[in-house]
Amino acid sequence: MVPKGKFVRPAEPNELVPENYFAQIRVEDFFTSEAPLEIDLGCGDGKFTLEMAEHHPDRNFLAVERLLGRVRKVCRGADKRGLENLRVLRLETLYTLEWLLPENSVDRLHLLCPDPWPKAKHHRRRLFQKPFLDAVVRVLKPGGELLFKTDHDEYFEWSEEHLTDYQGLERLDWPDDAFFYPKTDFQIQWEAEGKKLQGLRARKPL
Ligand SMILES: C[S@@+](CC[C@H](N)C(=O)[O-])C[C@H]1O[C@@H](n2cnc3c(N)ncnc32)[C@H](O)[C@@H]1O
Fold first, then answer.
1. Which residues line ligand 1 (CB under 6 A)?
2. Where are the domains of the chain?
3. pTM here?
């Protein structure tokens, strides 16, 4: 017989493991102090989130990622830097926004270089469409922002169209020098290959 609990994976340092994945969490319970909350959706190896958390000790950051190896890497990075304001959640992005997080709880959402699903038959898998935008509006505080970047021109146009057609978010300008915004791992890789990233910035109305 297998001893009870044998296959439960121990949490990594800085990992946010909800006690119950079917109930909303109070995100502030997982941080040492209450502060504005920013979320990096699909954080990859975490360069962006780690730099943001270091740069903004007065804000809390939640990195969401579905791949365990990447979650572990970001957790180790946060631990090494002694970051009390960064937690990592191993979960699916849309589920997190639709079910786990409370309404009106997030100040900024970052969606950086998500999978573009270039083939037409896979477009329905793209995140940037109505169910995602509904979930974004659900979790953002009034005045909260969604920041999105992609290197994929056609996905950028698709996302721009979906944002324009969507009633619940106002588009904002996003000049390069608007605020501190470190490059992500994928951005560095793609810029080295000569690809240019395009961004969208939108706000939930006050
Ligand atoms: C192309 S990478 C970009 C990583 C990072 N944002 C960057 O720009 O360097 C996309 C990341 O999102 C993660 N991902 C893809 N779909 C996801 C989902 N539905 N939920 C959570 N993470 C997801 C992937 O595992 C991967 O690490």
1. 42-44, 64-67, 70, 92-93, 112-115, 184-187
2. 27-203
3. 0.95
Show the tokens assigned to 14: 């800085």
Separation between Cα atoms, residue 118 and residue 1, nearest integer Å:
47
CB-based burial, 50-63: b 16+ in 10 Å, e otherwise: bbbbbeeeebbbbb
Ligand 1 mean position to 183 CA, how many Å? 15
- Residue bearing the CA closest to ligand 1, atom 4: 44
Catalytic residue among 45, 107, 115, 173: 115
State which residues of the chain have pLDDT below 50.
none
User: Tell me: the pLDDT tens digits for 164-203?
Assistant: 999 999 999 999 899 999 998 888 888 888 888 999 999 9
Q: Which CATH superfamily is domain 27-203 in?
A: Vaccinia Virus protein VP39 (3.40.50.150)
